[in-house]
């Protein structure tokens, strides 16, 4: 029986390994992590992350061919194939601080693999890493492992999106596998491909060289984020020219060369990956003397920051140039719907911006915990200007304005007549996700601002 070890039980490692276990009943999958709290949550009724469909998959496989453990060494020792899905955040200090990927976790995982391996293994990069990381990993492994043990490193970047992770894993657009040239590399690629063959159609599995696979993941996120910044840049222009962003997006999307996806203007992109991966790309370009290319990608992040501050400025300027002492309901805190993840969520910057103008915030998100919001806003629970409540009606009661910061479906179907009646007047809505019907709200009496449209009243 083939044994797989997944190092890192986070947003990628947990769902990815669970789907492999689901689709390959003949393979034993052990997911390991150094975080005891994460592993005990994976072994409990309340999983550490929220993803639609994840609980069902885990319940179906846990205790059969899927286990979660903190015994990293044992499962490395036993595995034939090791998937590494550890975090690769932006470096916070030293060389490349603020841009380069911090590979500390990767290096420590690689050293553990080297120490514990007594038989040949395939190491699969699932984490997003700088191009040519495999070369560094090879060095660490070959210099530290027992004599005679051989490793093949493969790059198999993960393209899942949070909120649709299970669907993306079960039905991927494509699976990318990059390996070393030569017979041993080729054999390793075929072994990994053999796992995906259980459920992914042949034509969706793409094999490349190692460096193309590594760089493809960075390019993928950079292109997606660039598209968001492009439409958001257009939204700013719409607001000052009388053009409507939804009409513009529609017109663009009908051009088959452009296509319809990722054309929704918003308060900005968030999530743990886009910014970090673009910064990583910028660092790689700069390190290789490609300054103009680096500047090009930097601008994607600058436009995103600008979009968030433009939103805050619009809230404050619309509300007679001050939100001091005014109650603002913040609906949604996660960086997107159907996830509890708040990493780099635009809500953090928007809330901080409004607090900077002395607003009183009442925050509601259906999936994000109170503790998480407190942590993200770096406050202790006694701070007076922020309350975190458990439903949207409570959040909006007596509020002067509402900011929609996550596109949760439930915000589309609130009883806005009731909401309006319980708010201070004039009642403002700032729709940072363009999910609400402006005409309907305006008829009720709201003053509505949505991204990329002139102010309606
Ligand atoms: P995460 O922080 O949720 O999970 C990483 C886990 O690795 C943590 O639980 C941590 O405790 C564990 N870990 C760190 N070092 C370890 C070690 N030496 N041994 C065992 N466990 C260790 O991160 P994530 O969101 O799952 O992302 C992981 C990687 O995947 C990153 O490189 C990210 O860029 C990439 N990625 C993320 C997404 C996404 O949507 N989150 C999508 C595609 C790719």
Automatic annotation (TrEMBL):
Protein name: UDP-glucose 6-dehydrogenase
Alphabetized GO MF terms: NAD binding; UDP-glucose 6-dehydrogenase activity
UniProt binding sites for NAD(+): 8-13, 33, 38, 86-90, 127-128, 162, 273-276, 343
SMART domains linked: UDPG_MGDP_dh_C
Pathway recorded for this protein: Nucleotide-sugar biosynthesis; UDP-alpha-D-glucuronate biosynthesis; UDP-alpha-D-glucuronate from UDP-alpha-D-glucose: step 1/1
Group of enzyme by EC: oxidoreductase
NCBIfam families tied to this protein: NDP-sugDHase
Entry keyword set: NAD, Oxidoreductase
Superkingdom as given in the UniProt entry: Eukaryota
Residues of the UDP-glucose/GDP-mannose dehydrogenase C-terminal domain: 329-438
Gene Ontology BP annotations: glycosaminoglycan biosynthetic process; UDP-glucuronate biosynthetic process
Keyword Oxidoreductase: yes
Cellular-component GO terms for this entry: nucleus
Natural source organism: Lupinus angustifolius (Narrow-leaved blue lupine)
């Amino acid at each position: 029986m083939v044994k797989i070890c997944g190092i890192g039980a986070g947003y990628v490692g947990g769902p990815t390994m669970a789907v492999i276990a689901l689709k390959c009943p003949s393979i034993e999958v052990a997911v390991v992590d150094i975080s005891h709290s994460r592993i005990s949550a994976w072994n409990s009724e309340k999983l550490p992350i929220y993803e639609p469909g994840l609980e069902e998959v885990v319940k179906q496989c846990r205790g059969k061919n899927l286990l979660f453990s903190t015994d990293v060494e044992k499962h490395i020792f036993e595995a034939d194939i090791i998937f590494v899905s550890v975090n690769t955040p932006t470096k916070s200090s030293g060389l490349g601080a603020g841009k380069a990927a911090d590979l500390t976790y990767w290096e420590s995982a690689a050293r553990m693999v080297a120490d514990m391996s007594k038989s040949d293994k395939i190491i699969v990069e699932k984490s997003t890493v700088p191009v040519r990381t495999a070369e560094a990993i090879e060095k660490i492994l070959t210099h530290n492992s027992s004599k005679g043990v051989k490793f093949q490193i493969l790059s198999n970047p993960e393209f899942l999106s949070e909120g649709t992770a299970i669907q993306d894993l079960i039905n991927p657009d494509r699976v990318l596998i990059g390996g070393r040239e030569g017979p041993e590399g080729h054999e390793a690629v075929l072994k990994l491909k053999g796992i995906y063959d259980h459920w992914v159609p042949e034509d969706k599995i793409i094999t490349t060289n190692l460096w193309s696979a590594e760089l493809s993941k960075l390019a993928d996120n950079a292109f997606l984020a660039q598209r968001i910044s492009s439409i958001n840049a257009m939204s700013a222009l719409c607001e000052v020219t009388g053009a409507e962003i939804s009409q513009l997006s529609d017109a663009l999307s009908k051009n088959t060369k452009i296509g319809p996806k990722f054309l929704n203007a918003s308060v900005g992109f968030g999530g743990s990956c886009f910014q970090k991966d673009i910064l990583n790309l910028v660092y790689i370009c700069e390190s290789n003397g490609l300054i103009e290319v680096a500047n090009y990608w930097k601008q994607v992040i600058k436009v995103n920051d600008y979009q968030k501050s433009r939103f805050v400025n619009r809230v404050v300027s619309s509300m007679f140039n001050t939100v001091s002492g005014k109650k603002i309901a913040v609906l949604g805190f996660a960086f997107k719907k159907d996830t509890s993840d708040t990493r780099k969520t635009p809500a953090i910057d928007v809330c901080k911006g409004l607090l900077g103008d002395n607003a009183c915030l009442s925050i509601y998100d259906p999936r994000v915990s109170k503790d998480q919001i407190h942590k993200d806003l770096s406050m202790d629970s006694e701070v007076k200007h922020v309350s975190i409540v458990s439903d949207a009606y409570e959040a909006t009661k007596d509020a002067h304005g509402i900011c929609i910061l996550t596109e949760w479906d439930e915000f589309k179907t609130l009883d806005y007549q009731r909401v309006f009646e319980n708010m201070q007047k004039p009642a403002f809505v700032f729709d940072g996700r363009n999910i609400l019907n402006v005409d309907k709200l305006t008829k009720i009496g709201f003053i509505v601002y949505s991204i990329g449209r002139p102010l309606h009243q």
